[in-house]
Amino acid sequence: MSAVAQRNLIEIRWHARAGQGAKTAANILAQAALREGKYAQSFPEFGPERRGAPMQAFNRLSDEPFYMHSGITEPDIVIVVDPRLMETIPVTDGLKPNGWVIVNTHFSPEEAQVRWELKPFKVATVDASAIARETLKQDIPNVPLLGAFAKVTGLVSLETLQSDTVHRLEKRFRDRPQVIEANLKALERGFNEVSWVDAQVFEPILAEPSQIAFKSWTELQEGGIIPEPSTSLLYRTGSWRLERPVFDPQKCVQCLMCWLVCPDSAIVLESGKVVGIDYDHCKGCGLCSLQCPPKAKALTMVLEAEFDKK
Ligand code: SF4
Ligand code: SF4
What we know:
single chain; alpha/beta; Pyruvate-ferredoxin Oxidoreductase, domain 3; Alpha-Beta Plaits; 2 domains; 7-stranded mixed sheet; two-stranded antiparallel sheet; 10 helices; 11 strands; 20% strand; disordered N terminus; binds iron/sulfur cluster
């Protein structure tokens, strides 16, 4: 049974070295959550781009849509793929009180708490490197850690992770089924071998949802500068469009999410309110429609061919 109570938005931060598979693991986790009907995100953040350099990967999982795209600074769960990182990187920075740290180590959760001063947090440990060496024949601990995550949190099931693993590997290793078998074994062992301090089982992960202070656009720092404006007069990117967003002002709640995400500044504002679309420069990417809250649904993508007929 899992140890983490269900909550609306769970934020997860992976700490690893490039090449240990944290980006892939975060990706698989998001895919599995999507398959189980959740909303999910995964993305990595690399420093110096070389194998062995410290990197982070992030996941957000929720039962409801969310609109954040920033890096995660106040996670609910931290997964430490390489425990040696804890000697140089403050991996628990911003971790919520009551948050979880899942560590790849042969130490018990109690020993890990003392060794890395993790006392304020809940700690789960699994020797993912040993499992990976025994099953995959190389030290790539991401797969057993995913199994451990499923057991500790219950946020995704082992079965979904297993079917996603098969789906991901079957094309590449069609003639080497033993590789797929080894990955499934690594997942299952991570699930079965993770341990945490018994007294902490079933405590809710946290009481309060995170509070995020959003700046208004006038408070944001100035971004890129265009030294020679007016090229947009020459390049009418609207001619690239296959679909166009159709705006319904009656349904619009003026949240301005469409304006925020449009890469071509093609959402037309008047007195701070959305009034329409600049079709000369809208290239039909559909981002505005995706971000428009489902309850409003004020932007609908329609095939350009439909307009040609009229
Ligand atoms: S479809 Fe893309 S380019 Fe056009 S308005 Fe929407 S976000 Fe902007
Ligand atoms: S995202 Fe939708 S509801 Fe929000 S301002 Fe744009 S059109 Fe209106």
